[in-house]
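Anyone up for a design puzzle?
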């Protein structure tokens, strides 16, 4: 991968939805998406390059920033700072739950605007809400006590408030625990996250729900696994 124009001092790092934005003093922004299995690691330059290392940034410290992605569902792109928000990657994204714009009123309107969409699928749609993946969508619905197959446009009133709070709480907690590592995910220092120890339903089919003791169930929606408690999430 040729990362044209990337040089200068890193002057900011931000996250928007599932994208990482690394801001350079020379006016360029490196946009990265880790996909299913990608990772960005910072290692001494003498470290042997792993297979599937697609890009390397040489840092003045003597370290490399390396982008490694065995399954190649991720993405890297470079934009001038002023053009990044209007880029193909970012312009269609909905609000990030931990940034501005994700309010209960926004969520109510976005839910009501759907037609025939299950609430689980709604949560995964990055154009509606940017940043929830398959693990967190199941967790959010368990926290909000909403059945995953409910039509999104039938989620109303108190349920919207519960769903809004659950989205913010689940994502905030996951970020504070440095992410969820079930297989590949590691942070820039090569360490896994800790959030997997706190999952209530995801990947727990057949285990008792921590709230009521009923067995957690797995179903498939849109070719993705969904986990839920049939008693806590009856409707
Ligand atoms: Zn339960």
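Challenge accepted. My sequence:
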């Amino acid at each position: 991968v040729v990362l044209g124009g990337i040089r200068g001092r890193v002057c900011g790092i931000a996250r928007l939805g599932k994208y990482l934005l690394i801001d350079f003093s020379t006016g360029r922004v490196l946009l990265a998406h880790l996909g299913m299995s990608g990772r960005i690691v910072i290692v001494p330059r003498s470290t042997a390059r792993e297979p599937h290392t697609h890009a390397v940034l040489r840092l003045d410290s003597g370290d490399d920033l390396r982008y490694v992605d065995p399954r190649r569902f991720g993405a890297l792109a470079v934009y001038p700072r002023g053009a990044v928000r209007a880029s193909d990657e970012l312009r269609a994204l909905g609000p990030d739950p931990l940034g501005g714009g994700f309010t209960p009123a926004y969520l109510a309107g976005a839910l009501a605007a759907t037609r025939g969409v299950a609430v689980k699928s709604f949560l995964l749609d990055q154009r509606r809400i940017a940043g929830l993946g398959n693990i967190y969508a199941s967790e959010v619905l368990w926290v909000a006590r909403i059945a995953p197959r409910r039509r999104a446009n039938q989620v109303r009133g108190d349920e919207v408030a519960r769903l809004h709070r659950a989205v913010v709480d689940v994502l905030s907690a996951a970020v504070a625990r440095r992410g969820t590592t079930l297989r590949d995910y590691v942070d820039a220092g090569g360490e896994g996250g800790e959030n997997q120890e706190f999952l209530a339903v995801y990947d727990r089919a057949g285990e008792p729900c921590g709230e009521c003791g009923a067995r957690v169930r797995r179903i498939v929606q849109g070719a993705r696994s969904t986990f839920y408690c049939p008693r806590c999430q009856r409707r």
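A detail worth pointing out: The longest strand covers residues 10-16.
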